[in-house]
From TrEMBL:
PANTHER family reported in the protein's UniProt record: BIFUNCTIONAL NON-HOMOLOGOUS END JOINING PROTEIN LIGD
DNA ligase D polymerase domain sequence ranges: 34-292
The protein's name in its UniProt record: Bifunctional non-homologous end joining protein LigD
A Pfam family reported for this protein in Swiss-Prot or TrEMBL: LigD_Prim-Pol
Domain of life of the source: Bacteria
Protein backbone atom coordinates (compact mmCIF):
# COMPACT_ATOMS: atom_id res chain seq x y z
CA UNK A 1 0.00 0.00 0.00
CA UNK A 2 1.25 3.49 -0.82
CA UNK A 3 -0.07 7.00 -0.39
CA UNK A 4 -0.75 9.03 -3.52
CA UNK A 5 -2.40 12.11 -2.05
CA UNK A 6 -4.54 13.28 0.84
CA UNK A 7 -7.53 11.22 -0.31
CA UNK A 8 -5.84 8.54 -2.41
CA UNK A 9 -4.03 5.31 -1.73
CA UNK A 10 -2.72 2.60 -4.03
CA UNK A 11 -3.11 -1.02 -2.94
CA UNK A 12 -1.93 -4.28 -4.42
CA UNK A 13 -4.76 -6.70 -5.15
CA UNK A 14 -3.21 -10.02 -6.11
CA UNK A 15 -0.97 -9.00 -9.05
CA UNK A 16 -2.74 -5.69 -9.78
CA UNK A 17 -2.38 -2.21 -8.37
CA UNK A 18 -5.67 -0.42 -7.67
CA UNK A 19 -5.99 3.24 -6.74
CA UNK A 20 -8.58 3.87 -4.02
CA UNK A 21 -10.04 7.28 -3.20
CA UNK A 22 -12.10 8.94 -0.47
CA UNK A 23 -12.28 5.84 1.69
CA UNK A 24 -13.90 7.73 4.57
CA UNK A 25 -16.83 9.01 2.48
CA UNK A 26 -20.08 7.69 3.93
CA UNK A 27 -21.97 5.66 1.36
CA UNK A 28 -24.77 4.79 3.81
CA UNK A 29 -24.93 7.90 6.04
CA UNK A 30 -27.67 6.65 8.38
CA UNK A 31 -25.65 3.51 9.06
CA UNK A 32 -22.24 5.22 9.02
CA UNK A 33 -21.01 2.76 6.38
CA UNK A 34 -18.09 4.18 4.40
CA UNK A 35 -16.66 3.54 0.96
CA UNK A 36 -13.77 1.79 2.65
CA UNK A 37 -16.25 -0.61 4.25
CA UNK A 38 -17.97 -1.16 0.88
CA UNK A 39 -14.61 -2.12 -0.62
CA UNK A 40 -13.85 -4.33 2.38
CA UNK A 41 -17.20 -6.11 2.01
CA UNK A 42 -16.73 -6.79 -1.70
CA UNK A 43 -13.17 -7.97 -1.08
CA UNK A 44 -14.25 -10.43 1.58
CA UNK A 45 -17.35 -11.69 -0.23
CA UNK A 46 -15.48 -12.12 -3.53
CA UNK A 47 -14.83 -15.89 -3.19
CA UNK A 48 -18.58 -16.61 -3.34
CA UNK A 49 -19.62 -13.62 -5.48
CA UNK A 50 -17.16 -13.90 -8.38
CA UNK A 51 -18.38 -17.32 -9.59
CA UNK A 52 -21.87 -15.83 -10.05
CA UNK A 53 -20.49 -12.94 -12.10
CA UNK A 54 -18.26 -15.10 -14.29
CA UNK A 55 -18.94 -14.60 -18.02
CA UNK A 56 -21.92 -12.32 -17.32
CA UNK A 57 -21.77 -8.69 -18.53
CA UNK A 58 -22.32 -6.45 -15.54
CA UNK A 59 -24.56 -3.41 -15.36
CA UNK A 60 -23.57 -1.06 -12.56
CA UNK A 61 -25.72 1.11 -10.37
CA UNK A 62 -23.38 3.84 -9.11
CA UNK A 63 -23.85 6.19 -6.17
CA UNK A 64 -20.88 8.61 -6.20
CA UNK A 65 -22.24 10.56 -3.22
CA UNK A 66 -23.80 7.69 -1.34
CA UNK A 67 -27.30 6.27 -1.25
CA UNK A 68 -28.84 9.66 -0.47
CA UNK A 69 -27.29 11.28 -3.54
CA UNK A 70 -27.93 11.08 -7.26
CA UNK A 71 -27.27 7.73 -8.89
CA UNK A 72 -27.08 6.33 -12.39
CA UNK A 73 -26.98 3.02 -14.26
CA UNK A 74 -23.78 2.42 -16.19
CA UNK A 75 -23.43 -0.26 -18.84
CA UNK A 76 -20.43 1.02 -20.80
CA UNK A 77 -17.10 0.51 -19.08
CA UNK A 78 -15.56 3.74 -17.82
CA UNK A 79 -13.03 5.18 -20.25
CA UNK A 80 -10.50 5.77 -17.49
CA UNK A 81 -10.46 2.10 -16.47
CA UNK A 82 -7.13 0.33 -15.88
CA UNK A 83 -5.81 -1.57 -18.86
CA UNK A 84 -6.23 -4.92 -17.11
CA UNK A 85 -10.01 -4.58 -16.69
CA UNK A 86 -11.55 -7.03 -19.17
CA UNK A 87 -14.47 -5.80 -21.23
CA UNK A 88 -16.76 -7.36 -23.81
CA UNK A 89 -18.46 -5.40 -26.58
CA UNK A 90 -21.94 -6.78 -27.17
CA UNK A 91 -25.02 -5.72 -29.06
CA UNK A 92 -27.05 -3.29 -26.98
CA UNK A 93 -30.32 -4.76 -25.65
CA UNK A 94 -33.10 -3.49 -27.91
CA UNK A 95 -30.66 -2.42 -30.60
CA UNK A 96 -31.88 -2.79 -34.17
CA UNK A 97 -29.68 -5.12 -36.23
CA UNK A 98 -26.70 -4.61 -33.95
CA UNK A 99 -26.31 -0.93 -34.82
CA UNK A 100 -25.57 -0.11 -31.19
CA UNK A 101 -23.14 -1.88 -28.91
CA UNK A 102 -22.19 -1.71 -25.26
CA UNK A 103 -18.69 -2.27 -23.91
CA UNK A 104 -19.51 -4.15 -20.71
CA UNK A 105 -17.18 -4.79 -17.79
CA UNK A 106 -16.55 -8.49 -17.17
CA UNK A 107 -15.84 -9.07 -13.50
CA UNK A 108 -13.61 -12.11 -13.51
CA UNK A 109 -11.03 -11.18 -10.88
CA UNK A 110 -10.88 -9.60 -7.44
CA UNK A 111 -9.03 -6.48 -8.63
CA UNK A 112 -11.88 -5.58 -11.00
CA UNK A 113 -14.40 -5.99 -8.19
CA UNK A 114 -12.33 -3.71 -5.94
CA UNK A 115 -12.00 -1.14 -8.73
CA UNK A 116 -15.78 -1.11 -9.22
CA UNK A 117 -16.39 -0.75 -5.49
CA UNK A 118 -14.09 2.28 -5.49
CA UNK A 119 -16.30 3.75 -8.26
CA UNK A 120 -19.18 3.51 -5.77
CA UNK A 121 -20.82 0.82 -7.90
CA UNK A 122 -22.84 -0.33 -4.93
CA UNK A 123 -25.16 -2.56 -6.96
CA UNK A 124 -24.14 -5.16 -9.55
CA UNK A 125 -26.80 -6.43 -11.97
CA UNK A 126 -26.41 -9.35 -14.37
CA UNK A 127 -28.47 -11.15 -17.05
CA UNK A 128 -29.54 -14.79 -16.90
CA UNK A 129 -27.16 -15.69 -19.75
CA UNK A 130 -23.43 -15.80 -20.28
CA UNK A 131 -21.05 -15.00 -23.10
CA UNK A 132 -18.34 -17.12 -24.64
CA UNK A 133 -14.66 -16.12 -24.85
CA UNK A 134 -15.20 -14.37 -28.20
CA UNK A 135 -18.37 -12.57 -27.19
CA UNK A 136 -20.98 -15.02 -28.42
CA UNK A 137 -24.17 -14.81 -26.36
CA UNK A 138 -25.24 -18.18 -25.03
CA UNK A 139 -28.79 -19.29 -24.34
CA UNK A 140 -30.03 -18.44 -20.81
CA UNK A 141 -28.72 -20.88 -18.23
CA UNK A 142 -30.80 -19.50 -15.38
CA UNK A 143 -34.50 -18.96 -14.78
CA UNK A 144 -35.63 -16.29 -12.31
CA UNK A 145 -38.93 -15.29 -10.74
CA UNK A 146 -38.74 -11.83 -9.18
CA UNK A 147 -41.37 -11.63 -6.43
CA UNK A 148 -42.39 -8.03 -5.79
CA UNK A 149 -44.91 -7.22 -3.02
CA UNK A 150 -47.59 -4.57 -3.36
CA UNK A 151 -48.20 -2.87 -0.02
CA UNK A 152 -49.43 -3.85 2.50
CA UNK A 153 -48.02 -7.18 1.29
CA UNK A 154 -44.34 -7.59 2.22
CA UNK A 155 -41.41 -9.94 2.08
CA UNK A 156 -43.44 -12.32 4.24
CA UNK A 157 -46.07 -12.75 1.53
CA UNK A 158 -43.26 -13.14 -1.02
CA UNK A 159 -42.07 -16.14 0.99
CA UNK A 160 -45.51 -17.75 0.74
CA UNK A 161 -45.52 -17.21 -3.03
CA UNK A 162 -41.96 -18.52 -3.31
CA UNK A 163 -43.15 -21.76 -1.75
CA UNK A 164 -45.89 -22.00 -4.40
CA UNK A 165 -43.39 -21.38 -7.20
CA UNK A 166 -41.09 -24.01 -5.76
CA UNK A 167 -43.93 -26.56 -5.70
CA UNK A 168 -44.75 -25.95 -9.37
CA UNK A 169 -41.11 -26.27 -10.36
CA UNK A 170 -40.72 -29.38 -8.25
CA UNK A 171 -43.69 -30.94 -10.06
CA UNK A 172 -41.80 -30.27 -13.30
CA UNK A 173 -38.70 -31.92 -11.90
CA UNK A 174 -36.85 -28.62 -11.55
CA UNK A 175 -34.83 -27.79 -8.43
CA UNK A 176 -35.12 -24.20 -7.19
CA UNK A 177 -33.34 -21.95 -4.73
CA UNK A 178 -33.98 -18.48 -3.37
CA UNK A 179 -32.38 -15.22 -2.38
CA UNK A 180 -33.66 -11.96 -1.00
CA UNK A 181 -33.66 -9.02 -3.36
CA UNK A 182 -32.01 -7.00 -0.61
CA UNK A 183 -34.86 -4.56 -1.11
CA UNK A 184 -38.49 -5.51 -0.47
CA UNK A 185 -38.85 -8.80 -2.31
CA UNK A 186 -37.55 -12.29 -2.92
CA UNK A 187 -36.25 -14.08 -5.99
CA UNK A 188 -36.56 -17.74 -6.92
CA UNK A 189 -34.00 -19.24 -9.32
CA UNK A 190 -33.53 -22.50 -11.16
CA UNK A 191 -31.32 -23.81 -13.91
CA UNK A 192 -33.10 -23.14 -17.20
CA UNK A 193 -35.61 -25.97 -17.71
CA UNK A 194 -36.49 -24.86 -21.25
CA UNK A 195 -34.84 -22.95 -24.06
CA UNK A 196 -37.50 -20.23 -23.89
CA UNK A 197 -37.24 -19.38 -20.22
CA UNK A 198 -39.41 -16.30 -20.58
CA UNK A 199 -42.39 -18.29 -21.88
CA UNK A 200 -41.91 -20.96 -19.24
CA UNK A 201 -41.77 -18.38 -16.44
CA UNK A 202 -44.83 -16.60 -17.80
CA UNK A 203 -46.75 -19.86 -17.79
CA UNK A 204 -45.88 -20.52 -14.14
CA UNK A 205 -46.79 -16.96 -13.13
CA UNK A 206 -50.13 -17.03 -14.94
CA UNK A 207 -50.99 -20.42 -13.52
CA UNK A 208 -50.42 -19.29 -9.93
CA UNK A 209 -52.26 -16.00 -10.52
CA UNK A 210 -55.26 -18.07 -11.63
CA UNK A 211 -55.00 -20.62 -8.83
CA UNK A 212 -54.29 -18.18 -5.98
CA UNK A 213 -55.80 -14.84 -7.14
CA UNK A 214 -56.08 -13.53 -3.60
CA UNK A 215 -52.28 -13.54 -3.26
CA UNK A 216 -50.67 -13.59 -6.73
CA UNK A 217 -50.73 -11.36 -9.81
CA UNK A 218 -48.78 -11.89 -13.02
CA UNK A 219 -49.29 -8.52 -14.71
CA UNK A 220 -47.68 -5.16 -13.99
CA UNK A 221 -51.00 -3.25 -13.67
CA UNK A 222 -50.65 -1.30 -10.42
CA UNK A 223 -54.39 -1.34 -9.78
CA UNK A 224 -54.24 -5.12 -9.31
CA UNK A 225 -51.24 -5.21 -7.03
CA UNK A 226 -52.15 -3.83 -3.56
CA UNK A 227 -51.87 -6.58 -0.98
CA UNK A 228 -50.60 -9.10 -3.53
CA UNK A 229 -47.29 -10.35 -4.87
CA UNK A 230 -46.32 -9.80 -8.48
CA UNK A 231 -44.51 -12.76 -10.00
CA UNK A 232 -42.36 -10.80 -12.42
CA UNK A 233 -41.47 -13.32 -15.11
CA UNK A 234 -40.19 -10.59 -17.45
CA UNK A 235 -36.76 -10.69 -15.80
CA UNK A 236 -36.09 -13.61 -18.15
CA UNK A 237 -36.13 -11.31 -21.16
CA UNK A 238 -32.54 -11.39 -22.49
CA UNK A 239 -32.46 -7.59 -22.33
CA UNK A 240 -33.21 -7.56 -18.59
CA UNK A 241 -30.86 -7.87 -15.64
CA UNK A 242 -31.39 -8.86 -12.01
CA UNK A 243 -29.35 -7.87 -8.99
CA UNK A 244 -26.51 -10.35 -8.50
CA UNK A 245 -26.34 -12.62 -5.46
CA UNK A 246 -24.29 -11.00 -2.69
CA UNK A 247 -24.58 -7.54 -4.25
CA UNK A 248 -25.17 -4.64 -1.89
CA UNK A 249 -28.40 -2.69 -2.30
CA UNK A 250 -28.79 1.09 -2.04
CA UNK A 251 -31.13 1.19 0.95
CA UNK A 252 -30.81 3.11 4.23
CA UNK A 253 -28.73 0.22 5.53
CA UNK A 254 -26.13 -1.76 3.55
CA UNK A 255 -28.47 -4.68 2.91
CA UNK A 256 -27.47 -7.48 0.59
CA UNK A 257 -29.25 -9.67 -1.96
CA UNK A 258 -28.66 -12.70 0.22
CA UNK A 259 -29.14 -16.38 -0.66
CA UNK A 260 -31.42 -18.10 1.86
CA UNK A 261 -32.44 -21.67 2.62
CA UNK A 262 -35.92 -23.02 2.00
CA UNK A 263 -36.24 -23.59 5.75
CA UNK A 264 -35.66 -19.86 6.26
CA UNK A 265 -38.25 -19.02 3.61
CA UNK A 266 -40.83 -21.31 5.20
CA UNK A 267 -40.14 -19.99 8.70
CA UNK A 268 -40.24 -16.30 7.77
CA UNK A 269 -42.99 -14.56 9.75
CA UNK A 270 -41.75 -10.96 9.88
CA UNK A 271 -39.76 -8.95 7.33
CA UNK A 272 -36.68 -8.71 9.54
CA UNK A 273 -36.34 -12.50 9.51
CA UNK A 274 -34.87 -12.22 6.01
CA UNK A 275 -33.11 -8.86 5.95
CA UNK A 276 -29.33 -9.15 6.07
CA UNK A 277 -26.67 -6.45 6.14
CA UNK A 278 -23.16 -6.81 4.74
CA UNK A 279 -21.66 -7.91 8.04
CA UNK A 280 -24.39 -10.47 8.63
CA UNK A 281 -23.95 -11.95 5.16
CA UNK A 282 -20.21 -12.32 5.71
CA UNK A 283 -20.98 -14.20 8.92
CA UNK A 284 -23.50 -16.42 7.11
CA UNK A 285 -21.01 -17.29 4.38
CA UNK A 286 -18.32 -18.02 6.95
CA UNK A 287 -20.67 -20.42 8.72
CA UNK A 288 -22.49 -22.06 5.81
CA UNK A 289 -20.62 -21.24 2.60
CA UNK A 290 -22.41 -20.29 -0.60
CA UNK A 291 -26.14 -21.07 -0.39
CA UNK A 292 -26.92 -19.84 -3.89
CA UNK A 293 -27.69 -22.67 -6.27
CA UNK A 294 -28.10 -25.18 -3.48
Amino acid sequence: MSGDGPNEVSVRVEDRVVKLTNLEKEMYPEFGFTKGEVIDYYTRIAPVLLPHLKDRPVTLKRFPNGVDGKWFFEKNAAEHRPGWVRTMRLESPGSVKGNETVNYVMVDELATLVWLANLAALELHVPQWTVGPRGGKRDPDLLVFDLDPGAPASLVECCRVAELVRTVLDDDGVDAWAKTSGNKGLQVYAYAPAKDTSEYAKGVARRLAKEVPELVVSTMAKAQRPGKVLIDWSQNNPAKTTVAPYSLRARERPTVSAPVTWDEVEECQVVEDLVFTAGEVLERVSAAGDLFGS
